[in-house]
Each structure stands twice: as structure tokens, then as C-alpha cells.
Amino acid sequence: MKNEMIKVFGTTQLFEAKVIEALLRDNDIDVFVMNKQDSSYGMLLPGSIEIYIPSQFEKEAKEIINEGLASLN
Description:
The chain starts with a strand and ends with a helix. A 3-stranded antiparallel beta sheet has the order 1-3-2, covered by helices on one side. The protein has a single domain (5-64), classed as Alpha-Beta Plaits, CATH 3.30.70. By secondary structure, the chain is an alpha+beta fold. It is built from 2 helices and 3 strands. The chain is globular and about 35 Å long.
């Protein structure tokens, strides 16, 4: 399917998700962010933040994400 959305990244850190989202958008890749964190649980049960993109951009997105993560460390 051409418009199928796939998960390319997951984290529990909001700042990390925001950086990856911005990098993908800067490279003209549509991004859908699913925030599964619940503020009422706080640090006891941290949820995840997942980033989805159209499947046709998977290879390019993974390269962008790997380069972005390398620059954060």
C-alpha cells in the first residue's frame, strides 16, 4: 500500500521525539506522532512516544533518524 503508515521510531523522551519529528519534517517527510504518555502516571509508568511515516519513505527516514541520533550523543 502506498499510503500505509509505519512506525519508524519510539522513545519515552519527549525532547528526543521532537528532534526526530523536526528532522523528518525538514526533509519533507510527513510525520504522525502518537504520544502514549499519560501525565497522571508521571514517572511511575512512563509511556512511549511513537513516530509514524508513510511506508515509501522508510529507508530515507531511518537514515535521517540514525544521523540525528548520532548528533545528539
